[in-house]
Design brief:
Helix content: 25-40%
Structural class: alpha+beta
Number of helices: 3
Number of strands: 3
Low-confidence stretches: none
Bound molecules: zinc ion
């Protein structure tokens, strides 16, 4: 499992324009499963989400590219909303030959 703590300064929410740019640059990103407030896919939740949540989905995208056939899951947790401190975790759900750690 990968666990990263991130801290942001200033506005750390995605604008509609930035969300559209990311969805265009990474077409599969919007189809990621996502337990957001507005629907079951990341495309439903990307506008207004935190940069930390975007970072989680970009990590998943990179992990899938690096390990085709593997399934990854992540989550983003706000540790301190005043300091904009977030924890992003990524894990391999289906362990395989590529050395992914098994899901715990
Ligand atoms: Zn998500």
């Amino acid at each position: 499992m990968l666990c990263i703590t991130l801290q942001f300064r200033g506005n750390c929410r995605l604008s509609p324009e930035l969300a559209a740019a990311f969805l265009e640059a990474y077409p599969r990103l919007g189809r990621h499963a996502c337990k957001g407030l507005h629907g079951g896919h990341f495309a439903d939740n990307i506008v207004g989400t935190s940069y930390a949540h975007l970072f989680e989905h970009l990590l998943i995208e990179l992990a899938v590219c690096a390990h085709p056939g593997q399934v990854f899951a992540g989550n983003t947790k706000c540790l301190d909303p005043v300091r904009q401190l977030y924890q992003v975790r990524l894990r391999c759900v289906v362990p395989g030959e590529s050395g992914c750690e098994p899901a715990v």
